[in-house]
Design brief:
Blueprint lengths: L3 E3 L5 E6 L13 H20 L2 E12 L8 E11 L3 E12 L4 E15 L10 E3 L3 H20 L10 H5 L10 H4 L1
Parallel strand pairs: 1-7
Antiparallel strand pairs: 2-4, 3-6, 4-5, 5-6
The chain binds coenzyme A.
Coenzyme A binds next to strand 3, strand 6 and helix 2.
Length: 183
């Protein structure tokens, strides 16, 4: 197995049509159905990255910005955004695609954490991940903060133990003035 992989090696694309039994009373895709699709897509990306069995450790963030109507085409695209020691963050983007009018709207995104496990469900090391595009680099840079937040919210880390997250709440330091400046 490669020790380092690119984000694009974990790219997973799932395209489905929204069926009536997947919709809510407004005849739009039901949120829980979409979450299941996102989890499936993201888990394939995670397994592609580490070439191991993976489990969902956390759903860190999901936003629902636009509804996807019955009969519409839903496209999910996921990639590993950062690999840590045994866990990895996976970013899922969702689009509503209208092939007749050729309109594609970004409707949702979600951020998941997966852990690679052995046959006894024990976490095991995974390859590093190198971001290449600008978007991959931005997501990679912010992933450590999100990991810390997820660990705090799940009670696995105390807020004061965080490194990157704490920096967001710290007052900017006043530049130190020398005696010469004060004259
Ligand atoms: C996820 C699981 C394997 C972690 O096992 P564990 O013995 O607690 O392992 P650790 O504490 O060593 O954590 C392993 C990694 O997961 C990360 N992790 C665990 N919980 C996390 C969370 N809520 N958010 C972000 N990362 C998390 C840890 O930071 C660690 O990452 P690192 O090694 O890359 O630094 C275990 O909790 C589990 O099996 N959970 C059930 C998973 C499941 O059934 N999912 C299906 C959906 S319900």
């Amino acid at each position: 197995m490669a020790k380092v992989k690119t984000a694009s090696e974990s790219l997973t694309i799932m395209t489905n049509i929204v069926l009536p039994n997947e919709t809510n009373s407004l005849r739009n895709l039901f949120g829980g159905e979409l979450l299941a699709k996102m989890d499936r897509c993201a888990s394939i990306s995670a397994a592609r990255h580490c070439e191991r069995r993976v489990v969902t450790a956390s759903v860190n963030h999901v936003s629902f910005n636009h509804p996807i109507p019955e009969g519409g085409v839903v496209v999910l695209e996921s990639k590993v955004s950062r690999a840590f020691s045994t866990s990895m963050e996976v970013y899922v983007d969702v689009w509503s695609d209208d092939p007749i009018n050729q309109k594609k709207i970004h409707t949702n995104s979600g951020i998941y954490t997966f852990v690679a496990v052995d046959e006894f469900n024990r976490p095991i090391p995974i390859p590093d991940m190198i971001p290449e595009t600008e978007e991959e680099k931005e997501r990679y840079a912010a992933a450590f903060r999100r990991k810390e937040l997820s660990l705090i919210l799940s009670g696995r880390m105390k807020p004061l133990e965080s490194v990157e997250l704490k920096k967001l709440f710290q007052e900017p330091q006043e530049p130190q003035t020398s005696k010469k400046d004060k004259k």
